[in-house]
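Structure tokens please, single chain.
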Amino acid sequence: MKKYLLALVFLTASAVGFEQEAFPVIPLPNSIETKTGRFVFTNCTQLHYNITDTDVRNAVMPLIEKLRLVAGITLYQKPKCKTPSMVEIAIDKSIVNDEGYVLSVSPQKILLKAKTTAGIFYGAQTLLQLLPDAIEKGSFQKNISWSIPCVVIKDEPRFSYRGIMLDVARHYMPMAFLKKLIDLLAMQKMNRLHLHLTDSQGWRFECKKYPKLTEIGAYRKGTPLNTTYDYNSRPNDTLYGGYYTQEQLKELVRYASAHFITIVPEIEMPAHSMSALASYPELACLDSNGNAFPYPQQIQNEYCTKDETFTFLDNVLSEVMDVFPSKYIHIAGDEASKENWAHCRFDQQRMKEEGLKNVDELQSYFIKRIEKFVNSRGRSVIGWDEILQGGLAPNATVMSWTGIEGGITAAEQHHNVIMTPAEYCYFNFYQSGSPGEPVAFCCMLTLPKVYSYDPIPDVLKPDERRYVLGTQGNLWTEYVPTYQNAEYMIFPRAVALAEVGWTNTALKQYEGFRTRLIKYLKRLDDHHVNYSRHLFEIKLTTSLNEEKQVTASLAGVDKEYAIRYTLDGTGPTDRSPVYAQPVIIEKNATMTAAVLQDGIVLAQLKKDFRLHKAVGKAAVLATPPDEKYNTGGNNAWVNGCLGNDEQFSDDEWLGWNGKEFNGTIDFGNATVTSSLQTRFFHKPNSWIWAAKKVTAQVSDDGKIFRTVAEKEVPVPSNDGAVPFSMSWQPVTARYMRIIAGPVEKIPAGNPGAGNGAWLFVDEMVVN
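Here you go.
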């Protein structure tokens, strides 16, 4: 029956000649019938609804207020006109879905019906998107016809849970930004804002019973980027952090509720708890001698499972539930190493008393005990999919992030699931391979990949699919220190996910979405959103032409859009050359390519070219790179094109695991050389280390080599691309061999200690 209804909706849209690209609404409604004519809002437009139903009036308040402020049109007064037009709002209990609505627009009347005020609110959001985008500017606009097309829309969301998670623990975000984010999510019909309020790097929730949580745990040593757990070096260090008072959060809850968004609070447990343990160290695990486990073992330290901990957490959660009326309370449950539990005498005693076989079962005991308390307050818990370990708590909802497998397992056990797999939903991943992107956690998650996601796994049986409540995008902020960075990482990927959560799969089509998104971006501009400009992923490849010149080829953009480019590092304009064929790089250059439309940058790519003596020459690697990090080909190290400063996974970086770089260049004839410049990538948290030493050798016959230079590489102090250079007295030879020795074993105290390090090498610039 469900498949039949989807097909019927699709046929209805097609039968009336509907083109979704021309319909400026995101997320795309599920049934649209276009009519002739337009409805024009004027001061002769009357708003009609049951005068006693203030909730209905509040639901259409965004439409009322924006028309008054921006268009100068007052809807809720009775107009003194002979032939007034009308906007009628009505509750209709015959509509099945609680968030569904029916919108009928004719030249003289708009009728908006819904089962609940939530549906009325979403119908009003559709009306706002049908109006000119200037409705979002926030100030009076002259000489605009405030009209909308005549249509009949029957709409409802595919999923009941459509959310975004913002991590405010790693970096405190200002309250004004949280309200702005609520405004933006409401525009795209999302209904959950999940706030990650606590983590090892910061405690953001004011707990009146335990004031040290904010006196100590809300502030760490002043290091805005990356992570630190140093709460003990005060008062001499600059402090970094902040927290929200309960009154601030109650006001935020009221603000969100007016936008039909529920705030889901998260209090981390049992791991990611250093901010709490720094505040109340008596809750930490102790070794056999009664001492706290030393850093860095405490990086993911868990609360000890003694009774005092549960009293503490029950009290904290009681205050959380007094502030947040959300049905769901998120208790995390993720990434618990449980190493300390295996050695702490209190935890071992707990396992003995409860008859638990292992620490996985101890985690299950922990979550079940917390769930029982939360249930006693009439609420339900959500946990990341690790709460499946050792047995799932009876009424828990699983948020599946490590993949889809956790969600599948939970749904098969008839537990509710929110799908948020990192591969599709982690907005802390890079969204473009373009140089200049802000530092991200890792990996790549492009806009089209977000849009391609289907939250219901194919393997689920029909009766199991109903347990998938919806989907959520997550922004972890280890590398996102400001709200401007957060906006960049969230938008427009959140807009794509909004359509994933709302629109039936049969109607989704990326090209149509992208066309509508281009128009929608003007609304984000009106709200001064610092969104990413990567609607297309411009691809650049290099090659040599017959004259052995380096050429740059551009691709990845639909034919109807022009790519414009420059070679001097400046941003392209409408007057810049249009790419039509491979561009010859005749000297050192910075190519910037972009897609422009109506003054909006839809995509941009920047690449540096450095021509040198090894470019285009025969080159051989003694050991090929790892196949996962060889997308640019074995000759990427001498093709004249530099790698991305922030991302080791682009086409120009070559990677080896636990092996050295060893490459030989055949110049073809005797050539004078005297210097080498290159770059290594350094990111110890990802097991990537710069080389320890670089050796340059030359040969006349390609068999016997002599060393002309050798230089140690200092351990870098920062992550990213690390420049390296060395020089020698000019020498003439036909062959050159370059050897870059890796860090054989990752040093103790670092992620992956004892394993072979990854070595990533950029262009070897030989002169």
